[in-house]
Amino acid sequence: MKPARFVGLPLAAALTFLISACGGGGSSGGGGTSSGGGGGPGGTPAPAADFNATPNPTTAGTPVAFADTSLGSPTSWAWDFQDDGTVDDTTQNPSFAFTVAGTYTVRLTATNAGGNGTITKSVTVTAAPSGPVADIDADSNRDGSITAADDTNEHLWSATQGAVFYFNQDDDNNNNQEDYLDTTSTGTDNLDLAPIILRQVSSPPAGGSAVISVSTAAQGRIRIFRNTGGTWTSVYSAGASFTIPLTDLAAGDVQLGIEARDRMQVSWDGRVTLTYEIRNSGGTAVSTDAVIFRCAPPIFATNLWTAEELHLVSTGSNNAAFRTAMQGICTAGGITYREVPGTSYGNDRWIQDSSEPAVIQLPSPTGPRRVIDNVVQLARWRSVDDWCEDVLWGPDFDFFRRFTTNDDSHNYGGNLEVVPPYTGKPYGQIVYGGGTGVLVGTSTSVTSNMHLSYRQFFDACALQGPSFTITSEWLAVGHIDEFSMFIPAPNTARGFICVMSSPTRAMNILQTMYNAGQGSTVLFAGRGSHQTTVTALWTNNALMQLNQETQLRIDQARNQIKAATGLTDADFVHIPCLYENVGSNYLAALNPGSVNLITLPSTNGTIYLALPDPEGPDIGGVDQFQLDINNQLAPYDTAGNPYSITYVDVFYSYHTLLGEAHCGSNTVRTPPNDDWWNK
Amino acid sequence: MKLFALLMCATFSTALLADTGALLDQAAGLKAGDAKGWTVVRESVLEQGESALPTLRAAGAAENWNREGWQRAMAAEALRLRIEKPEWAAVCDNPEGIQPAVYKQFKRARPFCVRDLENLGKDATPLLLEQWFFLLETREFTPGEAGKLEREALAHALLYVPGFHADARARFAMQLALTDKALPDVWRQTAAVSFARCGGADALEPLCAFFDDAANALLVREACGWAIGHIAGMDAANALKARLSDEAIIAGAVGGNLRRGLLTGVSNLGSSWGWKSRGTDKADLALQVRQACAEIAIQALRDMPAEVELISRALNMTAWKSSLATVTELAADTNATAETRAAATKCLETLGDAIKNG
Questions:
Q1: Residues of B with CB below 8 A from A409's CB?
Q2: Please, are residues A141 and A156 in contact by the beta-carbon 8 Å criterion?
Q3: CB contact at 8 A, A285 and A278
Q4: What distance separates the 2 farthest-apart alpha carbons in chain A?
Q5: Which has the closest alpha carbon to B160: A343, A441, A638?
Q6: Closest C-alpha among A610, A598, A637 to residue A491
Q7: Cα distances (Å, whole numbers) of residue A568 to A223, A429, A498, A571, A625
Q8: pTM assigned to the model
Q9: What digits encode the pLDDT tens for the residues A295-339?
Q10: What's the complex ipTM?
Q11: Interface touch A552/B264, C-beta < 8 Å
């Protein structure tokens, strides 16, 4: 039990204290006196110490939050809360509860290489109120349990404080509905509830009440259970507040658990403040406490995360070669290979488009964190969309159902990638395709975008935002993985590169071969009416013109990535690919687009890359497009994390159906070993 | 007896030949969209089998593909191909990309069939024209919205592919489609480009006339601007320049569609890679045309800076080396309007790379 934060009773005593100042040669002002700030031996100025104390005045037993606001970039701090010469804390922003009423002089000494600066300020402490005390506690310091250490600033969200809760969408009890729809919680599902304790109330007011109010934006978007003798039943799912009988609180602590039952969106950032009031018989609050929670957002996987499971749809002999190749890669990399039976899903093979894999991380009492796998189902409305529900969903594997009935190919998973982490974006940044622009060769302007509900969701999740758009409206399918992909490159400063299709490189190869008298060289040998020659392609000026303009659109996308992320030209690698008009001036890759690759970093250190075989012109058994791709990727192929490149046959199984390898796969990955709430 | 048999055979053969010719005459007189009439003719000829081929070959010879005779030549060649290349005819009769069972497997489950028809090659053009001219109008598609999309996809492919192959035999059919007010504007837009690519220099004057005629559909006039850019020569450059000098067009008449169409034409005509692929024998002409296109685009920066997106594309496609310096000067030219300077500055964001890649 601990004192209340905010007290509604008249103060029993209040003392006014002087501002105590100390330190030589400093300036005074505001609520304190400071010293220091002179130049150090190396010319670095010593800090000008300063801080804020909140709340001030306060009541005995209530933690006061001290926030360092010193200038001069101090590197260490010494806090003496009673100015008794004993350093009580050395963290930058500590908290401290004064237990006895009085006026305290608080001294901060801030130090850097140039010396130190000192300031003192006073804190006024009044006696703790008598009567009942409202006290609501949660795991606000995120160590997986509720202790006295959680009390500090439990009503504020920061990098060090604020409880985490979960949008309970898995199905621990296997009743085939998301657990947040259940009005009772049992078994392992109880682990998915973030614990809350309402502390025992002594001397409850006669005829009074205990009311827990839910912050406005969260009303109706959370559910709170109460544990009564091991049975968890819902006590809140809608409305502004709920009550707990005071008699129960008088008898002892009351245990609650909270879950979210809605996703983050523009109107709700996933945060909820529960304000707990003990009211007298007249309905006036006599004691109040509050605690804040934030719903754990899904963290979308990047291609830098280690691959755990690869999922492909089997379409029988049609994609047998592809599946065999991928199974071999998975075996070599220790990656679980899983086939989804196409017959169960109308042979809808575009599993990438169905959903976007992510993880949800929660504080845990038994380890550094708890990880719940997750996928976000995209607004697509085709057969294999149900794969995530049928195959993945279950205990500790949840999924977000579609947000909208809108079905536009720009909503699909192939149109969503995550730029891997970089400075300032520890979890990377979400990017998708769309925009407004003219179709190639025309002045017809078109607009296409991922549905607003998804874009707003990504930004409301905040960790991987702000999301941004790159141009893709000129494509028949409209996906960014048709021309770009982020892959690991451990020997670069960022640790990754962006591979982009380059029609220019492809045209250069055709031109060089044609001029060298190799125009009769065949492409797509044995591919029926698709078979063609270097001459047929190169001398079609309409096709070359189209590809030049396609390059401009890809360059535009590259510039958009650079503008949003700070990537530079050195972070991009360009590999040959031609495009063609497949209908109504919308484009698709003419040859299998190798950029639409599957990236499988493995636990053995090898980075497996499965690239669609570009089926470029062949000279002496060497595919000239493959040769160029290999040369472009070679600088990033390191001994420590070697690339293992495989060209996979996707021609009839995917390419002629307007997709490639990445489109036909979905990968469950292992998240990084850190906690999002500290970021 | 043997002599009688020989005489009978010769008579029969002559009759066949005469019949084939007459049937082709009949085909030449059919109206567009008369699938029923065409089917009668077609089946009658096909019943004759390979014996009809000599007549068909003669009737479909290149010299017969003129304004007066192209329909008869097209009928003859389509029939010849149906006999000699039945697999091509099967593709044209039912392209996979508009069959629901196929396109529902596409990554985007919509009908697309350009690839099906394009991969048949230029020689298959008569079969595409047969579909376009005689059969499309009454062809059955899936009921409802899906069928509309299938129809759109097939129509676009039938109009686009002859132009992709720049098959001169299709120029009259494409011109007819361009001028057919009963057709949707977007189909006629595709026809305009194909007419330019199939008709070459001969298409320039009709396209310009169509563009200039305010009575014509605006979207189709706009597409004539794109199409002029597919006629490789200085005459096309001059035609674009003249129209982009028109005060009404500069001012953005009729919603800016016309100037946007023309600027797209500049982009298409100036394409440095388009010119490279035309071969070294066109190198001198390429230099003239690209320089002219670069100059037109730079003038457009002064005249209509609001169209910076399309002007930038034209400059990038033309990739004319000295335009970089000129646009740089323009961006700093205090005599230019603020809008022009801003547009020039915007163009500089990508022009360097475009010239490097051009």
A1: 107-108
A2: no
A3: yes
A4: 100
A5: A441
A6: A637
A7: 46, 16, 10, 5, 25
A8: 0.87
A9: 999 999 999 999 999 999 999 999 999 999 999 999 999 999 999
A10: 0.95
A11: no
